[in-house]
Amino acid sequence: MSQEKYIGMDVHQATISAAVMDAHGKLIMECLLETKASTIVEFMQGLQGTLSVTFEEGTSAAWLHDLLQPHVDRLVVCDPRKAALLKEGNKSDRTDARKLAEMLRTQQLHSVYDGEHGVRTLKELGRSYLTITKGCNSKSRLQAASHCSCPLTYSVDSISNPHASSRGSGMYLEFLLRRAHSRKRVERRY
């Protein structure tokens, strides 16, 4: 007996309608999944056998492709405009998922996306590196300028306990005013 399973997924921002068929075209299961990585992976791991999955190309296609690739045997991201069966009959998420599973089982779908082979990951790493280094540089410049224009000359007790004496509270207020003034100068410069 064949353990092949064909899974059609109708993907939306918040939910995914999934239909699972066996090799004979019998509908085994239908479910509504949250569009969340852990939920989707848990669903795939709960299915046994050879898994073939399809979904339409859309805004989440690259993310979902990269998420599912290690968990399935075959993955097809199809073009919704070329899937003729989807245009016929009633339109609903459940029927679309069923039709996608049936079209995958009968090999009527052709893949339009094979993954970006690490380019997207590289771009994300580069963008993260630039964000982190830019943030560190501007933060350290702001801190250096702030400390240069208003050095900390007060003791920790006089700042942390402003009510210790009337003299202490005056020092604390003076400290706050100097810090605020120096920050405004630094923000104007940068």
Number of strands: 5
The structural domain count equals: 2
User: So, the CATH homologous superfamily of the largest domain?
Assistant: YqgF/RNase H-like domain
- Run of helices and strands: EEEHEHEHHHHH
Which CATH top level class of the largest domain fits? Alpha Beta
The portion of residues assigned to helices is 40-55%
- Low-pLDDT windows of residues: 149-156, 165-169
CATH topology of the largest domain: Nucleotidyltransferase, domain 5
Q: Largest sheet at a glance?
A: 5 strands, mixed
Helix-and-strand structural type:
alpha/beta
Structure summary:
This protein is of the alpha/beta class. It has helices spanning 37-46, 61-68, 84-87, 93-105, 119-149, 156-160, 166-189, and strands at 4-11, 15-22, 27-34, 50-56, 74-78.
